[in-house]
Amino acid sequence: MEAVHVESDSIRAELLPEVGARLHRLRAFGHDLLRTPDDPRMHANDPFFWGAYVLAPWGNRLQAGPRHAAGRPLDLPANFADGSAIHGQVYARAWQHSDTRLSVAAGGDGWPWRYEVNARATADGATLRLAYALVNTSDAPMPAGLGLHPWWRQPVEVAIAARSVYPTTTDSPAVPEPVRGRLDRRTLGPMPAGIDAAWTDLDDPAVELRWPDAGVALTMRAIGPDVHVVAASPPDVDAVAVEVQTHAPQGLRRLERREPGALALLDPRAALSLTVELIARRF
């Protein structure tokens, strides 16, 4: 499987255009930071639990099946065990690429709007910069969301600089609540097992990660509109997902009900952008 390599003296990334332009591997100072399969083909067989993949034109869960949104009928197939339509449409599709620029066109099916996603990866010093743009190529306004979903290798310590949280992503409430208890992640430490929540009201940088066994830390900055951090720590996966996206869970419901954290409504030919900076350091 062909890989696109982006590297500096301190950081090295491998992207797989054939499987969603995802990060197969991210190494900082010689240490692997992502949950990476030995065989890259595992990303196609099990696309949701390896590496770091792009979320577009929505992230997290939407209701599957027929419905109307933004004046158009849509019919999203369920693609997850809980019966939801999760993580968009491009996480495992083949992307085109030229050097470190990648792109994919999709939509016009159960998601009736057509769109493109463009990506560029660059490395400078100990920083990997991933710039994404979602472009509405249809003739009507399109609900839109962007995100990046990394699985960070355990054991890892995590801090999320947020004052508010949606305590669940499966049936998230209309408005967030103040962080408290085990959902107050403002202090660096291990992520408790069984969390699946979304944080908002973020400071910059949004996320700090640290691998004590490797002596490596990583700052995760997200530059874009209405950034949220979603984290999941399933007890049966040897990694923690700490991801960034431009909306809260159930973003289509939020758009329809005018709840906070909704998917954006993107005009024809307009673009939604999200840049993720991963800044490594030794400690």
Structure description:
It is a single chain. It contains 2 helices and 24 strands. The chain is mainly beta. The strands form 5 sheets. Strands 5, 10, 11, 12, 13, 15, 16, 17, 18, 19, 20, 21, 22 and 24 form a 14-stranded antiparallel β-sheet that branches. Strands 1-2-3-4 form a 4-stranded antiparallel β-sheet, with no helix packed on it. A hairpin with a 4-residue loop joins strand 19 and strand 20 (216-223). The radius of gyration is 18 Å and the shape is globular. The two termini are 35 Å apart.
Give a concise summary.
With 283 residues, the protein is mainly beta. The chain has one domain: Beta-galactosidase, Chain A, domain 5, CATH 2.70.98.10.
| Helix-strand pattern | EEEEHEEEEEEEEEEEEEEEEEEHEE
Q: Bin the helical content.
A: under 10%
Low-confidence stretches: none
Give the distance, in angstroms, between the N- and C-terminal Cα atoms. Answer: 35 Å
**Strand portion, in percent?**
over 45%
Q: How many runs of DSSP E, i.e. beta strands? A: 24
Domain count, please report it. 1
Contiguous helical run count:
2
CATH class: Mainly Beta
Shape, principal axes of CA atoms: globular
Oligomer: single chain
CATH topology: Beta-galactosidase, Chain A, domain 5
What class would the helix/strand composition place it in? mainly beta
Task: Quote the average pLDDT.
Answer: 97
Core attributes:
283 residues, globular, single chain, Beta-galactosidase, Chain A, domain 5, mainly beta, 2 helices, 14-stranded antiparallel beta sheet
